Here is the input.
Amino acid sequence: AQTVTQSQPEMSVQEAETVTLSCTYDTSESDYYLFWYKQPPSRQMILVIRQEAYKQQNATENRFSVNFQKAAKSFSLKISDSQLGDAAMYFCAYRSENSGNTPLVFGKGTRLSVIA
Amino acid sequence: GAVVSQHPSRVICKSGTSVKIECRSLDFQATTMFWYRQFPKQSLMLMATSNEGSKATYEQGVEKDKFLINHASLTLSTLTVTSAHPEDSSFYICSARRGGVGYTFGSGTRLTVV
Here is the structure.
């Protein structure tokens, strides 16, 4: 079974600075997808960024980018120019490519605080 | 974009009663719905996977008779917590596949059993 590990329960960053959230995963599959989700205090899950394992190029979405290291099974999220609205729980998630009924497997999350 | 409407957002019920949570896909057909449970400051734990027109598949340790899942149509899946007890108090979230690799989450239901 696949597992996702987020080793940083809490992180903090100064407003306008850059922060990197870590995520590692364990799988024997070669095709899969990785995600970062944000869960603000409203608890609505919001997709931040997605990476297909077959793509070597790291995904980027505005201020959010990932460092995907397939061999190391690492998938970190970099948030640039941090804003107060970035404060939230961030979950790293894995999805197998095997079937359409595959759920997301989540890490335990990292709580990000942004300091004004 | 794809929206999953989840109701109610909050519910308080008495111990021993049943509560139904609905997740409705508003602008797409959700052939598969995932139900998660989230304890305070913890991650999402998959409870079950439901497919339209068939029985749900429950994760190990999840009581099928307590957490009844129905997915009778392509736009509606329900989770009924039967004979609820205080330990069932939690945050419940549904998530629907919407084609490709996309997932859409409901806004969650905070259940408090008193």
User: Anything to note?
Assistant: The longest strand of chain A covers residues 88-96. The radius of gyration of chain A is 14 Å.
